[in-house]
Hints:
This protein is α+β, with helices and mostly antiparallel strands. 24% of the residues lie in helices and 23% in strands. The strands form 6 sheets. A 7-stranded mixed β-sheet has the order 6-5-13-14-15-12-16, sandwiched between helices. Strand 9 (184-190) and strand 10 (199-209) form a beta hairpin. Helix 1 runs parallel beside helix 4, helix 1 packs parallel to helix 7 (364-383) and helix 8 (393-422) runs antiparallel to helix 9. The longest helix has 30 residues, at 393-422. Bound molecules: flavin-adenine dinucleotide (FAD). Flavin-adenine dinucleotide binds next to helix 1, strand 8 and helix 7. Flavin-adenine dinucleotide (FAD) binds next to helix 1, strand 8 and helix 7.
Amino acid sequence: MQFHLDGFQPGDPEIADPTARIQASGAAGAVPTEVDVLIVGCGPAGLTLAAQLAQFPDIKTCIVEQKPGRLLVGQADGIACRTMEMFHAFGFSERVLKEACWVNETTFWKPDERWPEKIIRSGRVQDVEDGLSEFPHVILNQARIHDGFLDIMRKAPAKLEPHYSRRLLDLHVDPAAGTSDHAVTVRLERVDAGNEGKVETIKARYVVGCDGARSTVRKSIGRELHGDSANHAWGVMDVLAVTDFPDIRFKSLIQSAKDGSLLIIPREGGYMARLYVELAKLDVGERVANRNITADDVIAKAQRILKPHTLEVKEIAWWSVYEIGQRLTDKFDDVPEAEIDTRLPRIFIAGDACHTHSPKAGQGMNVSMQDAFNLGWKLATVLRKQCAPSLLHSYSAERQAVAKELIDFDREWSGILASAAKAGGADAAKTQDYFVKHGRYTAGTATHYRASVLTGATSHQHLAEGFAIGTRFHSAPVIRLGDAKQVHLGHASQADGRFRIYAFSPAEDPAAAGSAIRALCNFLTEARESPVRRYTPVGADIDSVIDLRAVFQQDHRQLAIEAMPSLLLPPKGRYGLLDYEKMFCRDPKSGHDVFDMRGIDRKAGCMVVVRPDQYVATVLPLGDFAGLASYFDGFLLQAN
Ligand SMILES: Cc1cc2nc3c(=O)[nH]c(=O)nc-3n(C[C@H](O)[C@H](O)[C@H](O)COP(=O)(O)OP(=O)(O)OC[C@H]3O[C@@H](n4cnc5c(N)ncnc54)[C@H](O)[C@@H]3O)c2cc1C
């Protein structure tokens, strides 16, 4: 898609009338007085969480934001492959794929050894290694990501709209309240014209602070961000410009001999580019605002770095100057480490409220959304009484460790970028090596949750080497048995709070009387210990809590769907219509065999259990019914 040719216009580029793209949204009237979850902040973290909770009409959620309306321009723009996988689960990856700029290759530029005042291209790499994800790394304005989530929220069963112009003043937890009480009292101040200063009070079971780096929620629970004091000022600018720099449509890392580094990010629409310009080293404790840096300063610096190429900026769509700071808080909820066994969390923080990153590693927005995806399903299962509230401790435990690892990576990466210029660009090869080596971090696929009640031991990992326990379920193409359509196995996972069991069959006929798949289905349908029987509420669809999928080694034409166990062709809904989308086969036509691609033991088969946030929970032998039951018994609550 090409757009922004005659000037930048915020909003949906498919709407021809630019004024219609930015129409006001948001909930009218007062905020509710009592909710299950109050989310503070409409950034990527808050909106991801709201979109997740909006899937459950029985959960009452409210999201508030101090700004008067939705974001229209600026802030982050890099969307990691892993985030695209999550967008698919929410149902808007196709739209992002269409509108975004795809990062295919990254180029590296350094000073010419003979004429160091000129830069030359020193390297070029594929941006994302082959096979890392079925989705590309893309670039799209954060504002459009917000729009995607707002749309999902609006269309979801709980029909959620943010309440804008509400600033969180303070919050208070009643220590004597029971687990199901609305124990948190929150005061909000209205900041919209005509209502300024009015105070509204909400009582909530849980409050989630998605209120950014200066989070009031974080301060209210006595937590602080620790880490580097920022010491590098960077300018960031979205421009429509005419240039003879040939790689303007590539992500380009440019190191000049004397003027520092420049990172070019090609942007959506085919004409716009983002410039990250290294500006100045700050004194300890100095704020960049004190330098009075102007847009012209940023452009002039970019022009010097790009020499001998020209850069004529025609329009600035957005710009900002900021300091880099990699900071982290020690815990993401209100329960001190020493009280984990005796207290349950009521207040959580997510996103920039608990960690900040240098934008050059492209992590801030991506990690913030993944925090919220991790917390969302947990809150939903607890509120819907499917899990005990102690499960909520796992949010901070899992996400704090991930954030720490990323910040260590981010610090190293920012240091390399900043110091490369100091070395006169001599570190270009090191920069390129590091970029390739750490591609998995930037793609968001390096996250690895440690063993816990949710993440099983690695005793049976050898049965499916390619589905590493604790990492995200790495999708692969398969053929759907019911209609011979080529689909992605991982796309069975929607952001609907359900667990999935992928049962990979041995080579035998799965429909045969004594087959391992049939034995598993019999166990899940009939046994008293079956987690499907134990945790599915009476009257609910059989796959509403745990969704069984089967993958076969045969070609789809060799199998008879009508002979398969009924759990794989289950009647659902008010008419008992059959669900034909539970069974898959390898895809011989395209040469994609999921068994080979993911290292599945063909002789034994296996079960891969996947959490609602798409992470591999455990790998078990196909006949390990006790192991399967014990995994779910570890945290789910009996339904009936
Ligand atoms: C000005 C700016 C420029 C940035 N530029 C880049 C960039 O160039 N590249 C990059 O990768 N990342 C950038 N980032 C970082 C990136 O946007 C964040 O990492 C990401 O948005 C984090 O998401 P979040 O939801 O945690 O927080 P945020 O996006 O910060 O959202 C927090 C929200 O909470 C609201 N809020 C705060 N306090 C209150 C309160 N008391 N009451 C009600 N609402 C409140 C805020 O108004 C805000 O909308 C930038 C961030 C900012 C703020």
